[in-house]
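Work Package 4 report. The design task specified in the project plan requires that, given a folded chain encoded as structure tokens, an amino acid be chosen for each position. We show below one input record used in the internal validation round.
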């Protein structure tokens, strides 16, 4: 069981190089294919909504939109090719992907990014996105589309290049016995099974049969040796999780995300938003 396909939504926000670096670091361990997904805006979407625009001006706006899109696409494609080569990946066409080889492909479609992430993400093993910058209003919709619409594991990357050649040597799992935490473990099993060390951050559970000890036995059945570290989430669950993962020397944190919805989450008492906003390490999240 391994990761075969990693999708990276890429856009002209200045974060592409760092996200591709993290995707390569995760994919390197699995010889996974990396698929960069670029959303090209439709010219008609550039027309102001609800405003009467003369035909000549509409055509001018569309032509300008095409020119801007062409320029952005060329720059992003050049970046993608360069980063993938530097990371030891062979850039190929979509129909030339080599299973269990480090290949990378470029996919471009017109439309809205959330829709592309939803549609392509559902047949991905992992979707890799940049940590959102809420102050600049960048990246939050991408993360939400990946988590809530694709239903696949989402790797949230801190700014900058990956700090490890291969992500997932030492993994921390935030565990409280919830449905979201169990789904995260199940979908992240290919990552967990290839780790050198696994630590379970035990936040306690109210559900019989889902203790950290039961999780350790469950992992042992799959050949994974894990240690348990109790954590006291109290009223600062997100901060406690990040501090405990860092103290454990983890290079990757796995956790469930948004137990009910974005406004009323229950995982670790409401840790997701804090982790998304403050994490300095890559976090693999599953809703």
């Amino acid at each position: 069981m391994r990761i075969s396909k990693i999708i990276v939504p890429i856009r002209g926000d200045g974060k592409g190089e760092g996200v591709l670096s993290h995707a390569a670091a995760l994919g390197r361990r699995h010889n996974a294919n990396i698929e960069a997904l670029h959303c090209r805006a439709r010219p008609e979407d550039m027309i102001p909504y609800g405003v009467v625009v003369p035909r000549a001006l509409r055509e001018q706006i569309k032509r300008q939109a095409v020119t801007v899109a062409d320029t952005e696409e060329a720059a992003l494609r050049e970046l993608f090719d360069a980063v993938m080569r530097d990371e030891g990946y062979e850039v190929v066409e979509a129909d030339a992907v080599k299973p269990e080889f480090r290949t990378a492909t470029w996919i471009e479609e017109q439309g809205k990014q959330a829709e592309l992430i939803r549609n392509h993400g559902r047949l991905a093993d992992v979707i890799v996105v940049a940590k959102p910058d809420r102050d600049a209003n960048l990246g939050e919709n991408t993360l939400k589309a990946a988590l809530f619409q694709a239903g696949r594991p989402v790797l949230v990357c801190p700014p900058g290049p990956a700090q490890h050649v291969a992500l997932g040597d030492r993994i921390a799992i935030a565990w409280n016995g919830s449905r979201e935490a169990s789904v995260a473990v199940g979908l992240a099993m290919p990552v967990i099974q290839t780790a050198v060390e696994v630590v379970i951050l035990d936040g306690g559970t109210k559900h019989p049969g889902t203790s950290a000890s039961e999780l350790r036995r469950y992992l042992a059945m799959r050949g994974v040796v894990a240690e348990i570290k109790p954590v006291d989430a109290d009223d600062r669950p997100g901060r406690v999780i990040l501090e405990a993962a860092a103290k454990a020397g983890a290079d990757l944190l796995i956790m469930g995300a948004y137990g009910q919805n974005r406004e009323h989450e229950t995982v670790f008492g409401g840790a997701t938003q804090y982790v998304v906003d403050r994490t300095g390490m890559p976090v693999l999240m599953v809703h």
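The chain has two domains: 5-157, 170-286. Validation will be extended to a larger panel in the next phase.
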